Amino acid sequence: MPKESPAPRSTSPHLVRRAQPLPEPQPPQASPRVPPPPLPDPGVTGRQRLVAALWPPRVTRAQLVVALLLFVLGLGLAIQVRSTSDNSALRGARQEDLVRILDELDDRTQRLEDEKTRLEKQRSELESSSDQAEEARKQTREKERQLGILAGTVAAEGPGITLTISDASGAVESDMLLDAIQELRAAGAEAIQVNEVRVVADSYFSGSGRDMRIDGTATAAPYVFKVIGKPEDLEPALNIPGGIVQTLEKEQATATVERSEKIVVDALRPAKRPDYAQSSSQ
User: Fold this and answer.
1) Structure pTM?
2) Mind listing the pLDDT tens digit for each residue in 127-137?
3) Closest CA to 263 of 104, 155, 131
4) Could you count the other beta carbons within 10 Å of the beta carbon of residue 152?
5) Gap between the Cα atoms of 8 and 145, Å rounded
């Protein structure tokens, strides 16, 4: 019998693996060269390089807004702290002291109202008087008397207080006496005399301790203030917390205040004619 030739073997396409060409070798790429950092200029110092790096400053808009807000906040805090410190003396005051300060402020307001009423009354009298010339002369004489008291050219008397400051250690300074004068004037003092010197608007204090002078006149402790005004206003003004009485006590000096229904201020000052100032009224 004839031999059967074997059937050709079928090759599955899934089993056939084609040879892939190998990638061509790439030439090695040279790594990029990093330039070396520039050498510092030997003529430039480190301080100059730091200044060049920081100036001019590179500030963005957001940074400017934040800086402005911080500045406003700091300013507000500083004002608040200062206001709080200014009122610290009143914060620590007793209730009766606060009531006395309020009463003093009310009295000042009332004095201003009384002065306003008096001036309005004078104006009405001048406008309604049948003999306006005589009425004007009458008011002029009254005004001259009042100005003479303020200028210290005439003597005065009336209710008031006597303030006596004893200074055994010589620690009282001229500014302390000036503070006492200012406190009395603010409380409504109309005439003041210290020892033998009449105190007026242009009076000044100098020296201290054993060499105290008022308007150039030597004076010594005890300093006796004769003050004409409303005693109910003058005495509390000197005894307010942090006032002149407490200040003098801290300097080992003593201050006593006595009310009186009649205080005589008889030290006079010569009337001075101004050299340059002239009345501007026609």
Assistant:
1) 0.54
2) 776 666 776 77
3) 155
4) 24
5) 155
